[in-house]
């Protein structure tokens, strides 16, 4: 299969039968490889998901600078909750399992983990912290209702700490719980200084720096089941604050469903599975659906739905699911496409929006932005090249200013009013914005963006 990535040695252990090969089209640097075995089983029967599914559901995740302990913290949470029968323990190596992740010792792809507390269930996204993989962090963060910001006490705030907070705010995250990791390696005075620094930073980015919970601990001690104040008790305190501080979101279960696709893979003998978090509505088994994005509008139906390897008759807004599609080849699916109720959405390559150009102090540009600016645009789980035109066309946008823009995408995508987007240039976030109106598509000569293009 052209463009396919073959993952050998996983299937017998995780899927139980078959030829030992999962064929996954989406490149490893873009897809959430670790999410595959935990979302779909070839032999689930018709057992419903655990009774814990009756609890309220919340999507959270770990964000922060590379090597500050996000994945270790995620592993520690699963270990502690597994001892209570509320999770399956996943070690660090099971979460960061792709060969490049193991070789480099960093998280590259956002990985989704399921666990529960006594009050609700969680789908937890472990986001990459390395600057080279910010696009994967954006995709992961777009699925969260709240976030755990991990900062190492030995370092304090670092470049990706700030950028992750900026992006978290941009994708709509309102509540942040701070976990100061490696607290056992510094003295109390340093911990107090780091807490002050983090509260000031939260306030700088529009979060509640006064009331946001800050917990000091050591993910590594907790992973070793150490019962000292920075070990297991710190993780339990963290989860208590997640339960109380991050509100259970209000979901729209009645509207036509939409599922932004974060990953896709082939199950031998069954077909193509798409994975993502349902943003709106309810997906019943055998529902008719459209697969939209990247200039495509494909018809399909959903023959099976699974939540963490358990078949369910329907899945609700906010839940992370794997959906088995009829008549769709893996080569037709890309991360960033949208699965939706038939006829409920459409695609376009043109929209109006409001945009804020980051100042130099915020890590943005020094020079103003003029019309005909072409750069990569990120929104939800997709990213495509885009041309930005300031309104009116003779205007310019200075760093630190808001302005109205018209945006032309290289590919037709699903877009709705209120949808957030981000512009990145030379590895840094330079602008954030919101779609205000979808416009009719423009014809692109030779299917290319050009500064010579008129009527944008």
From TrEMBL:
It is an enzyme of class 3 (hydrolase). One of its GO terms (cellular component) is mitochondrion. It is found in: Cytoplasm. Residues 55-250 form the Tr-type G domain. The keyword 4Fe-4S does not apply. It comes from the Eukaryota. GO terms for biological process: mitochondrial translational elongation. Its EC number is 3.6.5.3. One of its GO terms (molecular function) is GTP binding. Keywords: Cytoplasm, Elongation factor, GTP-binding, Hydrolase, Magnesium, Metal-binding, Nucleotide-binding, Protein biosynthesis. The keyword Membrane does not apply. Coiled coil: none annotated. It holds the Pfam family GTP_EFTU. InterPro entries: EF-Tu_GTP-bd, EF-Tu_GTPase, EFTu-like_2, EFTU_2, G_TR_CS, P-loop_NTPase, Small_GTP-bd, T_Tr_GTP-bd_dom. Signal peptide: none annotated. PROSITE patterns: G_TR_1, G_TR_2. Monomer. Belongs to the TRAFAC class translation factor GTPase superfamily. Classic translation factor GTPase family. EF-Tu/EF-1A subfamily. This is protein-synthesizing GTPase.
């Amino acid at each position: 299969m052209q463009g396919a990535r073959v993952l050998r040695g996983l299937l017998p252990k995780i899927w139980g039968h078959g030829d030992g090969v999962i064929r996954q089209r989406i490149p490893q640097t873009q897809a959430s490889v670790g999410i595959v075995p935990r979302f779909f089983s070839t032999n689930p029967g018709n057992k419903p998901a655990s009774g814990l599914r009756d609890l309220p559901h919340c999507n959270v995740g770990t964000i922060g600078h590379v090597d500050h302990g996000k994945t270790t913290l995620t592993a520690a949470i699963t270990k502690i909750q597994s001892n209570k029968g509320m999770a399956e323990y996943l070690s660090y190596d099971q979460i960061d399992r792709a060969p490049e992740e193991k070789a480099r010792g960093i998280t590259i792809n956002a990985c989704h983990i399921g666990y529960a507390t006594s009050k609700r269930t969680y789908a937890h996204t472990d986001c990459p912290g390395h600057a080279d993989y910010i696009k994967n962090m954006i995709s992961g963060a777009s699925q969260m209702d709240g976030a755990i910001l991990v900062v190492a006490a030995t370092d304090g705030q670092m470049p990706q700490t700030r950028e992750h907070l900026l992006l978290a705010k941009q994708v709509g995250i309102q509540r942040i719980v701070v976990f100061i990791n490696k607290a056992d390696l510094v003295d109390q005075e340093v911990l107090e200084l780091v807490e002050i620094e983090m509260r000031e930073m939260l306030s700088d980015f529009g979060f509640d720096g006064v009331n946001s919970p800050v917990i000091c601990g050591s993910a590594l001690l907790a992973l070793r089941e150490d019962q000292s104040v920075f070990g297991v008790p710190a993780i339990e305190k963290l989860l208590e604050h997640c339960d109380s501080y991050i509100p259970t979101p209000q979901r729209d279960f009645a509207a036509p469903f939409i599922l932004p696709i974060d990953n896709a893979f082939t199950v031998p003998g069954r077909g193509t599975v798409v994975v993502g978090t349902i943003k709106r509505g309810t997906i019943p088994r055998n529902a008719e659906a459209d697969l939209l994005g990247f200039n495509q509008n494909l018809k399909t139906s959903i023959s099976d739905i699974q939540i963490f390897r358990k078949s369910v008759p329907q899945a609700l807004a906010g839940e992370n699911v794997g959906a088995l599609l009829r008549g769709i080849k893996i080569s037709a699916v890309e991360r960033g496409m949208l699965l939706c109720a038939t006829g409920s959405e459409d695609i376009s390559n043109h929209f109006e929006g409001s945009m804020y150009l980051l100042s130099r102090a915020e890590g943005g540009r020094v020079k103003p932005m003029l019309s005909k600016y072409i750069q990569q645009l990120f929104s939800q789980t997709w990213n495509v090249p885009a041309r930005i035109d300031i309104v009116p066309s003779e205007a310019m946008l200075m760093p630190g200013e808001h302005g109205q823009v018209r945006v032309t995408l290289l590919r037709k995508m699903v877009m709705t009013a209120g949808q957030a987007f981000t512009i990145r240039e030379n590895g840094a976030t330079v602008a954030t914005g919101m779609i205000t109106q979808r416009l009719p598509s423009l014809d692109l000569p030779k299917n290319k963006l050009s500064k010579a293009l008129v009527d944008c």
